Amino acid sequence: MTSFIMKIIICPLGLMLSDWLFASVEYTTLTQPIVIGLILAVVGTMMEFLFLRRGTVWISTFMDFVATLAIVYFVSNLYEGAVVTFWGAILASLILGVTEYFTHRWLVANDKTRKSHA
After folding, report:
1. Could you give the CA distance from residue 94 to residue 64 in angstroms, rounded to a whole number?
2. What is the pLDDT of residues 22-54, one digit of tens each?
3. FRET pair for 79, CA 20 to 30 Å: which of 19, 39, 46, 68?
4. What is the value of pTM for the model shown?
């Protein structure tokens, strides 16, 4: 749950930062990066639950990068007026990938990846 709360804040902010920094990422309304960020938060949390364990930080981060790239590129371009080039999606995914790496390290270091079996 900690990871999801972090992601619902970090993912939209990362997309807003990308919109501000890169000409190849352009959203026309504030709701566009927020909705896409929430989609990324849900998908990222599910991927962490399935794959993140001690020793898989880098592979989990790479998988997050690839998933983020696909979601940002395809979903962003479904919005009318939003323009995200493939290069822009790569740049946005790199920003979010860096945050994911540190999130994954923190989750593993604090044993937040342990699955409870009821």
Report:
1. 10
2. 999 999 999 999 999 999 999 999 998 888 888
3. 46
4. 0.88
Tokens in use for 45?
Answer: 């949390």
Nearest 10 degrees: Cα torsion 28, 15, 62, 109: -160
In angstroms, rounded to a whole number, what is the distance separating the alpha carbons of residues 57 and 69?
18
Chain centre distance of CA 85: 17
Nearest CA to 51 among 117, 118, 113, 116? 113
Q: Report d(CA 104, CA 52) in Å as an integer.
A: 7
Q: Among all chains, which residue has been given the structure tokens 């190849």?
A: 24
What is the predicted pLDDT for the residue at 53? 85
**Residue 71 in tokens:** 């979601």
What pLDDT does residue 113 have?
A: 75
Q: How many whole angstroms separate alpha carbon 76 and alpha carbon 70?
A: 10
- Which structure tokens are listed for 17? 């930062």
